[in-house]
């Protein structure tokens, strides 16, 4: 795997060089009579202030860094690390991370078959916990998203025949534009899945305390099963089948013909009716 690392500090060095050049001028002004020295100091004050501002501007924290990875194309992603992942579908495959240097050093990005796996090595003994890291990815298409940790995954588009979204941790998954014939959504953790777009069939299964916020997702047919305290919201236009034994609330917007089996304590609203 090929990696690229960029540090910071050139801006700080440039500011120090400018300050060093101004030092002889300031010393010469100090040797003049007091009125002349004060006038010269007044003229130099804006320059010194600008130099200080430049030093602050270019002196980024020593821990700020970037790291590049060379990867092959993938259509599925599994995130097992507490990182922020931003995935954009488009030509080519790329991976680049930014953030705390310690986090980037331990970040692992591997492609196995067509699945990209994001993980993080454990800190060494005595090593402090690392800061935040953001991983920016691109690939032609994605149809499978799995999040097991406390990170987050944001995807601009999921398009194709069938897609899968699985959230097992306390993180967040968001998909801005779903264009699928079928999508399967599984929520087993305390996280949140936010989806918008259109699908022919939406199969939703919730066992954890999290939330599926998908009212902007329009499905022709929806099949919903809730076995936990989690909440579900989506839109169905033709038919909706709801089976619940949990305590979480379910809301199905739209004008679908609803079949509801409510064995739990949660409230179900579907097609304008309450169950």
What attributes characterize this protein structure?
275 residues; alpha/beta; Pectate Lyase C-like; 2 domains; 19-stranded mixed beta sheet; 19% helix; 51% strand
Share of helical residues:
10-25%
Shape: globular
Task: Please give the count of helices.
Answer: 3
Category from helices, strands and their pairing: alpha/beta
How would you characterize the overall build of this protein?
- The chain is of the alpha/beta class.
- Helices cover 19% and strands 51% of the residues.
- The chain contains 3 helices and 19 strands.
- The chain has helices spanning 10-30, 34-58, 101-106, and strands at residues 3-6, 64-69, 76-79, 84-89, 94-100, 107-112, 115-120, 133-139, 144-147, 152-155, 158-167, 172-187, 192-206, 211-226, 231-244, 250-253, 257-262, 268-270, 273-274.
- Helix 1 (10-30) packs antiparallel against helix 2.
Give a quick precis of the structure.
The protein has 275 residues and is α/β, with parallel strands linked by helices. The protein is built from three helices and 19 strands.
């Amino acid at each position: 795997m090929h990696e690229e690392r960029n540090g910071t500090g050139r801006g700080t060095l440039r500011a120090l060089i400018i300050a060093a050049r101004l030092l002889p001028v300031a010393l010469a002004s100090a040797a003049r009579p007091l009125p002349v020295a004060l006038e010269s100091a007044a003229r130099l004050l804006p320059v010194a202030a600008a130099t200080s501002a430049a030093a602050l501007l270019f002196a980024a924290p020593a821990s700020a860094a970037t790291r590049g990875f060379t990867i092959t194309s993938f259509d599925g992603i599994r995130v097992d690390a507490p990182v922020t992942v931003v995935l954009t579908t488009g030509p080519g495959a790329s991976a680049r991370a930014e953030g705390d240097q310690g986090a980037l050093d331990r970040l692992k990005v591997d492609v196995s078959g067509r699945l990209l796996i994001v993980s993080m090595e454990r800190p060494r003994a005595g090593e402090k916990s690392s800061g935040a890291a953001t991983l920016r990815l691109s690939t032609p298409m994605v149809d499978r998203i799995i999040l097991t940790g406390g990170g987050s995954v944001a995807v601009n588009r999921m398009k194709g025949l069938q897609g899968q979204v699985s959230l097992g941790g306390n993180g967040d998954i968001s998909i801005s534009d779903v264009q699928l014939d079928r999508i399967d959504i599984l929520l087993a953790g305390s996280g949140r899945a936010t989806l918008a777009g259109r699908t022919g069939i939406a199969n939703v299964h919730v066992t954890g305390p999290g939330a599926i916020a998908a009212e902007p997702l329009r499905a022709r047919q929806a099949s919903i099963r809730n076995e936990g305290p989690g909440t579900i919201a989506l839109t169905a236009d033709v038919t909706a089948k709801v089976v619940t034994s949990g305590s979480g609330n379910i809301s199905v917007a739209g004008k679908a013909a609803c079949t509801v089996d409510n064995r739990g304590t949660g409230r179900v609203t579907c097609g304008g009716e309450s169950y």
